[in-house]
Write a structure and sequence with these properties.
With 165 residues, the protein is α/β, with parallel strands linked by helices. Helices cover 34% and strands 25% of the residues. The protein contains six helices and nine strands, in the order ββαβαβαβββαβαβα. The strands form two sheets. Strands 1-2-4-3-5-8-9 form a seven-stranded mixed beta sheet, with helices on both faces. Helix 3 runs parallel beside helix 4.
């Protein structure tokens, strides 16, 4: 995966160039689903980007802060933004509120290790989905698919391509 760092209004995010792997996995004749991923854990961020690429989902940009995430989402207008809640400069829920105030038509998926009352807070902040971080990524892919109907070969669960090579 190639990326280029973008600077905008004092924030930093990485614009991701579509990988060959993602292009090969995209369903023929369908619009690709576009995503921005905001997470401050480099290993998890890379794993999510790879998981999405295998499923034919185009990651337009990644960011590791609320500020960087806001600029990446506003610059790229993805179908879905996957947002971690605890970020170095604030909370992903604050980012959700900022995006909702900007009236941008993007599905917001809070992807977090927090549970309990977190879902209620996420919904109140404008999130469309609340997904706990789990090792296999099924729930995250399902959440993204719910906001991109008609764009996948197999509705619902992710397909077996993610388990290949």
């Amino acid at each position: 995966m190639r990326s280029a760092t973008q600077r905008s209004a004092g924030s930093e995010y990485s614009a991701v160039t579509v990988t060959e792997r993602a292009t090969a996995a995209a369903p023929p004749g369908r619009q690709p689903v576009t995503v921005v991923v905001v997470d401050d854990h480099p290993a998890l961020l890379a794993a999510v980007v790879d998981l999405l690429a295998v499923q034919g989902i185009t990651v337009l940009a990644t960011a590791s802060t609320v500020r960087g995430g806001y600029h990446a989402i506003m610059s790229h207008h993805p179908d879905v933004a996957v947002v971690n809640n605890r970020l170095p400069d604030g909370f992903g829920l604050d980012l959700c509120q900022m995006i909702r105030r900007a009236a941008l038509d993007v599905a917001l998926v809070v992807h977090t290790a927090e549970d309990g009352e977190g879902e209620d807070r996420a919904r109140a902040a404008g999130a469309d989905e609340f997904v706990l971080k789990v090792a296999d990524g099924h729930e995250l892919l399902d959440a993204i698919r719910r906001h991109a109907p008609g764009r996948f070969d197999v509705p619902g669960r992710f397909d077996e391509r993610s388990q290949e090579g």
